[in-house]
Amino acid sequence: MNFLTPMAADRTTDYFSEIGRSFSQSSMRDQLSMQVIGLLAIIVAILVVIIILMWLRAKRNAVYIPHGWILTPTDIEVTIRSAMDQRSKFEVQFHSETEKRRSTFCTVIDVGNGVITMECSGLKNISKSWMGRMVDCYFRVQDEKRNQMYYMFSSSIAGIRPVTTEISHISITIPEKIEQKQKRASLRVDPPEQYILGIAVWKERMLGDGNHDLNIKNWGKPLLSFIPGKRAQVRLSNISAGGIKLHVKRQDAKDSGLEFNIGDKLFILLDLWEPETGQRQRHWLLCRLQLPYTDFETRDVDLGLQFLHRAEMKEGSNSELVWGPSLRSNEVDEIGNWAMRRHLELYREKGLE
Questions:
Q1: In the list 59, 90, 285, 337, which could disulfide-bond 139, CB 3.0-4.6 Å?
Q2: Strands, E assignment, the chain
C-alpha cells in the first residue's frame, strides 16, 4: 500500500489550495468582466436612446427647405455676383395695388453693403415715393456645365438715383432667400399631341363701333385648324402661361390667306386635355403675333403668339362670347398651371431640364 509522506501531503495540499485560489481569482475576474461588459452595454443602450431622442427632436423641429432655395447670405451674394459677371438681364416687376404689374429690364452694376444696385432704363416717372416698394426679380445664371439656371427673389427698394431722363440706378435690399424658379410665362413646354384636343385660328373681326365681334357665327370657317385624326393644318410647338408657338406647313400657310405680320391679332380656340381631372380645358384667346418666322428652305411658318385677352362663352349661348377678367402680365393662370404639370410629367418620365 502506497502512503504519501507528510512533505508530499503538504505539497499536494498546497497544489490543491493553489488551484482553488486560482479558480477563485478566475471566477472573480470573470464576474468583474461580466460586470464591466454589463456596464458598457447599459452605457451604449443609454447613448442609443439619447441619439434616437435627439434625432426625433431634430426631425420634429426641422424646417423644410424646398429644393433649389438659396438661404445663406454668402451663397446668395455669390449667385447675384455670378449673374452680374455674366451680364445677365434682370426682369424687375414692381408690386402694385392693381393686378397689372409694371416691369422693366435691369443689369446689376454692384453688390455690397447689403444692397444690389441695378441700372434700369425706361423708368421716367420713378421717384423717391417708390422707396420701400416690393419688387420681384427674375434672372438666370449659367452654371459650370453651361446649363441655364433660373432664379427669382422678392425684395424692397432701398434707394433710387436718377442718372438721366431715361436711366436710373435702383438699390434693392439683398433678399433673405433666392428661389430656383422660372417665370411661368418663360416656362415653355412642348406637350405630347394626345393632350391637344383641338386648335382653331381666325383673324380678329371688328364691328363698326370699333369693338370686337364676339359672335363666333360671324367668323366663318377657321383659317387654320387642328382636329386629332382629321385635320392638321397647324401644330402646337410649345405653350406657356404667356403665349403659344404654332407651326404651319408651307401650303397651309399659303391657303390660309394670312400675311403673318408682326402685330397682327388672331383669335385662337385652344382645347387642352387635363388627365388629372379627365376633362377638357377650353380657351378662347385674343393673341398678338409677336414673332413670325419663315424657314428659308421649307417655307414653313412658326408663329409666336402672345396672349392679350381671354373670352368665355356667354351664359345661355353657344355662339356669343364675353370678355373674361383682365390678364395679369398677359398670363393665363390655367394655361400656366397646365403647362407646369406637363413639364413635371415630362421631367419625371424623361429627365428633361
A1: 90
A2: 89-94, 102-112, 115-121, 134-142, 148-162, 167-173, 196-203, 224-227, 231-232, 234-239, 243-248, 265-274, 279-294, 301-313, 321-323
Radius of gyration in angstroms for the set of CA atoms belonging to the chain, rounded to a whole number: 37
Strand partners, 266: 203, 287
The answer to whether residue 180 sits within a structural domain is no
- Residue 223's CATH number: 2.40.10.220
Q: What CATH number did the domain enclosing 136 receive? A: 2.30.110.10
Look up the domain containing 286 and give its range. 193-350
Cell 383673324 belongs to which residue?
203
Name residues whose C-beta falls within 8 Å of residue 144's C-beta, 6 or more positions apart in sequence. Answer: none
- State pTM to two decimals: 0.53
Cα(295)–Cα(251) distance, integer angstroms: 13
C-alpha cell at 187: 416656362
